[in-house]
Design a protein that fits this description.
about 160 residues, alpha/beta, 2 domains, about 30% strand, membrane, Mce related family protein, Mce/MlaD, ABC_MlaD
């Protein structure tokens, strides 16, 4: 059986493509998923987590360091306790701040952590005490329209501010 150079070249290209797909797939998996033995749990409590979900990203200085693991309503205060799974090699100062942000105007929500300046760090199962809830863009737009047009059609009421 005689093979042409074209068939050999195509076979080589297919093998190279499959190898690159496996390599980049493995690299992407390792970049986006923190291995179970290489993380710590940190808690933060927010008044409003509207739009934040399990699996939402956690960033420090624009670099992904973890994900939201669990959201739990605190019955006594109606706040939400958020469990964060972050990389174990990230040491957050005790006075760090967690803020819920939007990706774009109506994009997905994520948490960004602004590191503090204290020399003591939040331990595994520790808590971030300084938090800021998400800005509700829809409510803000409703208030603007209500003020502009003086109409009750756009009025959005809230018992908590």
């Amino acid at each position: 059986m005689q093979y042409s150079y074209l068939e050999t070249f195509i076979g080589f290209c297919v093998m190279l493509f499959v190898t690159l797909c496996i390599y980049f797939g493995y690299k992407t998996y390792n970049d986006y998923y923190i291995k179970d033995n290489n993380f710590k749990t940190v808690f933060a409590t927010f008044q409003n987590v509207e739009g934040l979900n399990k699996g939402s990203s956690v960033f420090v200085s624009g670099i992904k360091i973890g994900t939201v693991e669990k959201l739990t309503l605190v019955p006594s205060s109606f706040d939400v306790a958020v469990e964060l799974k972050i990389s174990a090699d990230i040491n957050l100062p005790n006075d760090s701040q967690a803020i819920i942000m939007n990706r774009g105007l109506l994009g997905e929500k994520y948490i960004t952590i602004i590191p503090g300046i204290e020399e003591n760090y939040i331990a595994d199962k520790g808590e971030i005490h300084f938090t800021q809830s998400a800005i509700n863009v829809e409510r803000m737009i409703g208030k603007v329209f209500s003020e502009l047009f003086g109409s009750n059609y756009f009025k959005i009421s809230s018992s908590r501010h």
